Amino acid sequence: MVNQLVSNVKWSQKSNFVDIPTDCPTRERVGWTADISVFAETACYLTHPRQFLTKWLQDYMKAMIYPDTEVTTAWFFKTTTQLAEMAAILGHEKDYQKFHALSCKLKEVYKHHFLKKDRVASKRQCKYVRPLSMHLVDGTAAETIAAKLNEICIAGEYKIGTRFLTTWQVLQVLTDYGYADTAYRMLENTKQPGWLYAVSKGATTVWENWEGITKKGEPVDSHNHYAPGAVVAWLFSHCAGIRPLKPGFEEVLIRPFSGGSLTFARAEYESCKGTIVSEWKRDGDVFMLQVEIPDGVHARIELPDESHDELFGGKGEWSVPFRSPAIS
Question: 2-235 in CATH: which number?
């Protein structure tokens, strides 16, 4: 069912990556920027969209977003932080100072208006995912918010409770804060709402709405909408554990997480440096990992027992005692 989910996401991407990244090919057919912003990471794991996305970015009109709600304030902080990082890389010191100062101010604004003594006053998953994934909170406050998010997900019987602006990040956040098993249980949930619910109903693309179909069998919203399929990035980055340490996968991190009922996973990523393979098996208390790295590429291998190793191209195998991974 997970493989079918990945196939569905691929077909929804193909259906919507035509001239501009549309949200669905059937109903709205417009290039909402939010959809592609949450899906771009998955798109890069599944295909090579560099030219397509470059062309699309060059079509933008210049605009400024002003903080007025929790969502826009968080995204304003995120984009400003990214601009500061870009300016630093390019050596534009004045731009870096300007955007860095603005991002620090926005972080304080978010805490002041939307957190209560560094705590979230809500039962909605998105309210917890957003500040964690965008690094609007740190240290003990972040750990406390993550623990509460885990409690909410368990109490909700592992059903997804977010819309697409945070749906792509909920499993990443849970895994990074030490709740990988909860993340897997949410992925494997076949009840409504959940990613595999649509798969269980024979879907071949990704549905926009978690409901998808009414009890009378009538369709709800678009049935070809890639944004909720952004979860596939987590399958590559956390389940298989394939992540870039440097741009273009010049250096690679292999840090797989296991959980749920899965005892085996294998993923191949066609990077610009060559094919990267991560395959793991869990047999009782033993975790076995096989990795293949392109020649000339340096990989850092991090294992569930907190040990680590290095691989400079080629193949490697590891077998270690299994235990739940520590908080990253």
Answer: 1.50.10.10
